[in-house]
Write a structure and sequence with these properties.
The protein is globular, with a radius of gyration of 18 Å. Helix 6 packs across helix 8. The longest helix has 18 residues. It has a six-stranded mixed sheet. A two-stranded antiparallel sheet has the order 2-6. The protein has two domains: 149 residues, Peptidoglycan recognition protein-like (Lysozyme-like, 3-Layer(aba) Sandwich); 67 residues, Orthogonal Bundle (Muramoyl-pentapeptide Carboxypeptidase, domain 1). 32% of the residues lie in helices and 14% in strands. Bound molecules: zinc ion. Zinc ion (ZN) binds next to loops.
Amino acid sequence: MPAPDTPHAADFCPSPNHGERLTPISSLILHYTGMPTGPSALEQLTRAESQVSAHYFVDEDGTILQLVPEARRAWHAGRSFWAGETDMNSASIGIEIVHPGHADPRPFPDRQIEAVAALCRDICERRAILPRRVLGHSDIAIGRKIDPGEFFPWKALAEQGVGHYVEPARIIGGAALETGASGAEVRDLHRTLADYGYQIDVSGNYDEASAGAVAAFQRHFRPALVDGRADSSTIATLRALAGS
Ligand SMILES: [Zn+2]
């Protein structure tokens, strides 16, 4: 049994679901397990037939288990994209956080989030991962994944030194860019999202894929309203984030 890569892990609970890394580690990806209980999720992540895993598993009480050595490519991201990289499994470390998911969007316990923050700080320091490379699964798998959810406390994590965060701009209603729109404003939005890392064509046409990318951005950075429409609050939040 290998020793954990971090002093924060209580134990190693090996998963067979991993392979060889093909690119250097640049990102940290957070997930919720989306299963009714922690034990059922752990069973799934360590069973060969499931073909899924993550490097770390954080239980509701804050206990951290390591499932896959950091040097190996764990199978947590699936089809994915960030800033031009399409093999995010190779380019990242993945953390599964026990939570039932959107079926029961209850708050993540404080001690669980404190454990996640301590683990993230340790990984980012050892692996030189930039704050803006601490991402949700939903950021890198637009239209396919919605974890760790708009109810995930990114702000609390930022207050504990993890991730890239700006206070979301106030929602004031009014006009918004939405499906069917086109032109320079849409192109600007596309470019800013693409430069930040999101998978989006800089076409200037607000299509379904644009709405999906905006919804992914909102889920992480403007979680009070996730509707895929680029209102003034969404655009201001994105600009502030991109410029910070
Ligand atoms: Zn996930």
